[in-house]
Amino acid sequence: MYLKTRKLTELALLTAVALIIFVVELQIPNPFPIPGVKLGLANIVTVYAVYHYRAGEVLLIVVVRILLGSFFSGSIMTMMYSMAGGLLCLIGMLLLKRLLSEKYIWVCSVIGAVLHNIGQIAVACFVAGRGMLLYLPFLLVSGCLAGAFTGVCAQLLIKRRLSRQTDRDKSGQ
Amino acid sequence: MRKIWPFMLVGAVLLLGIAGSALVLQRPDTNIVEIVQDGNVLHRLNLAETEDQIIEVEYDGRINTIEISDHRIHMLEAECPDKTCVGMGWLDSAAPIVCLPNHLVIQFSDSDALDAAAG
Q1: How many CB pairs under 8 A join A and B?
Q2: Domains of chain A: which residue ranges?
Q3: What topology does CATH give the domain A5-26+36-172?
Q4: What is the ipTM metric for this complex?
Q5: Cβ contact (<8 Å) for A110 and B96?
Q6: H-helix or E-strand spanning residue B91
């Protein structure tokens, strides 16, 4: 794939930010004894990128982040769950983006988080059997809450960035 | 114009999750418990009849210690990084106790028969 230097730098920066958020989140102990429940703060970067970059570019960010993230967290099995979840989430959000404007980015984030959990459960079903399906309801609830949280974070970031830009435009001219 | 369907979609998923959780959290109407690894039933026990015991299950060199005490079952110890299964406490809902790194599941059985691989 041919990438302009500027674009490459932007994508690398976003990947690095997502990776840092991911590693920091690893240090937060999980209070819920349910596998797969987490805030998924790195999703802020993904959902932002979905609205500002092309599909292939977002895919690049997500795949590199998951690969490097699983190296840092030190477990290859984690990568299987994250990859299945991450890709399903990405497909869903790229489709939703066509239907929803950036104003509804949190809805996109919620559905993305829920799809991420569904992907994880699917892999877990292969690993540990059908019993894992019983965890899906818990993950639907936690996915809605975590997705709404990351979605609102992304919305705040975009708003701040836009108002900065307009401020700069006003003072610059 | 404000769209309504996104809110309804999120609301529907949330409601579905809450309703499903309420269903799953109920204790099933059976005392038969299965210890399953990689899809194979290693142990089938009737919690109402078993005496207190410790069961050890190995996976890839790592050992999970399962304790049955006072007709209840839980994961006492696990040699895995996350210890999620230990945190799940005693088994008392349809949601199984799982140790994903060691492919181990403790769950109430679907069928009532206590036949194969007993003990």
Answers
A1: 88
A2: 5-26+36-172
A3: Arp2/3 complex 21 kDa subunit ARPC3 (1.10.1760)
A4: 0.82
A5: no
A6: none
What whole-number distance in Å separates Cα of residue A169 and Cα of residue B69?
Answer: 70
Given A75, A110, A128, which is nearest B10 (Cβ)? Answer: A110
Cα A69-A70-A76 angle, rounded to 5 deg: 170
Distance from CA of B1 to the nearest CA of A (A): 12
3-state helix, strand, coil in chain B (%, to 5): 25, 40, 40
Query: B113: pLDDT confidence band, cut at 50, 70 and 90?
Result: low
DSSP symbol at A29: P
- With 90 as the cut, is the pLDDT of residue A16 above it? yes
Taking residues A130-146, report their average pLDDT: 91
Domains of chain B: 29-108 (2.60.320.10)
Interface membership of B12 toward A (CB under 8 Å):
no
Which candidate from A34, A114, A129 shows the least CB-CB separation from B13? A114
**B81, B84, B96: residue with CB nearest A33:** B84
The reply to whether residue A131 touches residue B81, judged by beta carbons under 8 angstroms, is no
**How deeply is A112 buried, as exposed, middle or buried, from its count of CB atoms within 10 A (0-12, 13-18, 19+)?**
buried
pLDDT reading at A126 higher than 90? no
d(CA A65, CA B94): 35
Contact A75 B95 (CB under 8 A): no
Chain B interface, best mutation among A140, A145, A155, by max B CB count within 10 A = A140
CB A49 within 8 A of CB A63: no
